[in-house]
Amino acid sequence: MSESSTSSFSRKWHAKLESALTTCEKALMRMLFLSGLTLSGLCALAFAGCSGGKASQTCQISSCIPHGHCGVGAQSGACVCDAGWTGAQCAQCGADYVSDASCGVGYCKSHNTPSSCVNGVEITCAPGSPLSSTDATCDGVDDNCNGAIDEGVALPAVPDCADAPPDPGPAQAWNHFVQSSIVVASGAAEHQGRDLFLNPGDPQWVLGKFAYGPTETVLVGEDVDLYLDRGCAGAWEKLGTSTTTAAGEHAAVEGVDDTGGRIFFAIPDSLLLGPGRHRIHMVVLGDLTTTEQIIEVVNSATRAFVVDLDGTITETEADDYPSMLTGSLPVAWPSSAAALNILAAKGLRPFYLTERPEWLDMRSREFLAANGYPPGILHTTLSFLGATGTNATTFKSDELAAVLDKAMILDWAFGNLATDADAYDNAGVQPVSHRIFIGLDDPRGGRRVDNWTELPGEFATLAPYCRYAR
After folding, report:
1. pTM for the full model?
2. Euclidean distance between the first and the last CA atom of the chain, given in angstroms as a whole number
């Protein structure tokens, strides 16, 4: 072999041989290499010379795994065992054996039998048996060990409370004919009920406002009949009759100040509402105009989501005002109703929270119903002008604090403005990724989406929110 060939060969193979050969083998390889032998001959003679004239054992990696690997250098030709394993092929467990408790899924994993070492023989990890075949128990556990949680739970349907209202009978004379006739002549009825989340044991109030015309001229001193659809089962019962107030006549109830034209009716103990969704129908006796209120009596740790309206489930922030001029409703974001219906079907109660003025209450309800949003609780502001900027943040923060005071859990929040992001942060909605903003980058880490299209499929994979503890 020429000197140039020798130099080329040395450069090519030096790095590979360096890491794999013993000192003896390196020395013999160098001497034999200079004699002009082929590579196979060099290897055979070098290994034989360094192993007492016999070719050393060749390590096969397949004989060492899964608990070892082939050695290199001084350990070449033999299996090098992982900690806790011993033997020529690392097949025997030893004193430092580490038990494996990773087998199984869900309940089967939490109730498995970890692996053990008995007289050098590994007894492998054994999954537990499924707790059930259907996973129909609302316990937050994958009872049937299939990777899904509570997928067999049948959540009770929430009624839409859409039964026909009761027959109020004929209109009656006004208590204050002249005064009330002037009020009624000022324009169309703009009555509003105030929805409530209540806990069992809370005082239960029917709350409503009665006003007419574009400036909301309030109706004072007139009687209003109150009817209850208990559990929204379609069977109406009369609660009683209340009289509209003059401003300041009644103390504030559930954050509602008495600005006049309001009713504050305490439901009698004998008629108190149990857990569930209930509908109140209010009828002004003088002209039979109406409004409604929803009361949901919820247990502690009831799960909910909060969603803004304008720009969040309507396509633009100010869409409602131009549409009023044409007598139409605002345009809903495609897929928004589908996404929220999925969350409601998973067990979350909807809370529609908007900074709109109070006189848009009924119009907001019409929008939600017309576009198929899940039935829930709706709150506007209690002002004539609504709220913007820091006032909107304060309003929504206070509303969410009241919900949390009912020991409810806000799992998801949806908005589109910085005021929404501020309010949801003040409410501590967690995880932060469950604060979803349409077209808004939230510096606190909330999630931005540009539309609702991706959300229905994502929400469909969620486990039911049937549990009453976080």
Report:
1. 0.74
2. 78
What is the C-alpha to C-alpha distance for residues 69 and 177, in angstroms, rounded to an integer?
Answer: 99
What gap in Å lies between CA 416 and CA 398, rounded to an integer?
Answer: 19
293: helix, strand or coil: strand
Contact present, 212 and 189 (Cβ < 8 Å): yes
CATH (one of 3.40.50.1000, 1.10.760.10, 3.90.1720.10, 3.30.300.20) for 303-460: 3.40.50.1000
CB-based contacts of 371, cutoff 8 Å, min separation 6? 313, 329, 332, 337
- Distance between CA atoms of 150 and 152, rounded to whole angstroms? 5
| DSSP reduced 3-state for 353 | strand
pLDDT tens per residue, range 431-442: 999 999 999 999
**CATH number assigned to the domain with residue range 177-295, chosen from the 4 options 2.10.25, 1.10.10, 1.10.3470, 2.60.40:** 2.60.40
pLDDT interval class at 153 (50, 70, 90): confident
Separation between Cα atoms, residue 226 and residue 244, nearest integer Å:
12
Q: Which carries the bigger pLDDT value, residue 320 or residue 223?
A: 223
H helices, E strands: number in the chain = 11, 22
| Alpha carbon distances (Å) from 361 to 39, 53, 62, 177, 194 | 90, 98, 73, 28, 9
Q: Please state whether the peptide bond connecting residue 66 to the residue before it is cis, i.e. omega within 30 degrees of 0.
A: yes
- Looking at residues 211-220, what average pLDDT do you find? 96
User: Is 317 within 8 Å of 388 (Cβ atoms)?
Assistant: no
Amino acid in the structure at residue 339: A
What Rg, from alpha-carbon coordinates, does the chain have?
Answer: 37
What is the DSSP track for 159-224? P---PPPPP--S----SSHHHHHHHHHTSSB--EE--EEE-TTS--EEEEE-EETTTTEEP-S-EE
Per-domain boundaries in the chain: 3-49, 58-91, 99-154, 177-295, 303-460
Q: What number of CA atoms fall less than 13 Å from residue 436's CA on the CB side?
A: 23
CA-nearest of 387, 403, 390, 299 to 352 is: 403
The candidate with the shortest Cα–Cα distance to 246, out of 224, 217, 219, 265, is: 219
User: What is d(CA 341, CA 335) in angstroms, rounded to the nearest whole number?
Assistant: 10
